[in-house]
Amino acid sequence: MGLFRLLFWVAVIFAAIWIWRRFISKAKPTRPTEDAAAPMVRCENCGVHIPKTQALSQDQRWYCSQKHLEQGPHTGDR
Predict the structure, then answer these.
(1) Which residues, 6+ apart, have CB-to-CB distance to 74 below 8 Å?
(2) How far apart are CA 73 and CA 57, in angstroms?
C-alpha cells in the first residue's frame, strides 16, 4: 500500500506541473513579431522605400517627405 501511495503522489505532482506549465505558456501576452513585414511604398521623387504608414500620398503616388511631395515625381534632369 505504501508504494501505491508514493506512485499516486508522484503522478499528482507531475500532473500539477504539466497543468501549471500549460497555464503559464498561454498567459503570456502576445505581441506582433518584429519580423512581420509592413507594407512598403516607393517615393516617386527619390526612390527610397518607406513604410506605407509613414508615407505621404498624392494622386496615388507616394512620397517620403513633405519636401518631395511638393517637388513632385523625379523627372531625371536634376
Answers:
(1) 44, 45, 46, 47
(2) 12
**Residue found under cell 505581441:** 31
pLDDT digits over 51-71, tens only? Answer: 999 999 988 899 999 999 998
Domain extents in the chain: 1-30, 40-71
SS3 9: helix
Distance separating alpha carbons of residues 53 and 12, to the nearest angstrom? 53
User: Side chain identity at 15, as an amino acid letter?
Assistant: A
The phi and psi torsions of 35 (rounded to 5 degrees) equal -80, -10
Compute the average pLDDT of residues 65-78: 80
Q: Which helix (H) or strand (E) holds 51?
A: strand 49-51
